[in-house]
Amino acid sequence: MRNRFDQQLEKLNNMLIEMGGLIEAAIEKSIQALTKLDVELAHEVIVGDADIDEMEKEIERLSLKLIVRQQPVAGDLRLISAALKMITDMERIGDQAADIAEITTMLAGLPTIKFDHVTQMAEATSRMVTRSIEAFVKKDLALVQKVKDMDDQVDELFRLVKNDVIHLLHDHQTESEQAIDLLMIAKYFERIGDHAENIAEWAEYSITGVHEAHRQKDA
Q1: How many distinct structural domains can be found in the chain?
Q2: pTM for the model
Q3: What is the CATH number of the domain that holds 166?
Q4: From CA 151, how far away is CA 156, in angstroms rounded?
């Protein structure tokens, strides 16, 4: 019985890794599509979001089946509970990558505006997502902390993007629509960073049994 349970836990872990790979690819493609204003690549991200949604459902079904049939305790229960929480954030990351791709299709063909801070945000949030998933897979608390530290960097970059947009709207009003679109893209990257931090915190919970929200409440 235990061997069967361990096999199912391993399957759950592999499915989480697979879903992580899907969202990492979605972010990377959305960044490339934005940088190159590649409409075809942007459409790939939008269409691929359905695969991420389906993977979330499969992981949820397996997790609930394990809880009902195996009635896990201690570390096993933490692992499954963390997985259920993580896939919600992972699915939303996929949605936001698709939202970025959707805006990219509208920017194509318009005068190009490049904000270095948006690019830096994209790269930082992509690293956050990768590290948060690695933290869970490798049970690495040091990676959890790196993700938390990077969230402050992403928040600061978002502040700089807002300043860029304000200046652009003041100096080049004819490009206001593109500026607002880029601000929306930056907001989606900021949300991706927040979800990555959530994933890292659930990875920490799966390792230690303590969640960040509970730690702050008890402090």
Answers
A1: 1
A2: 0.89
A3: 1.20.58.220
A4: 9
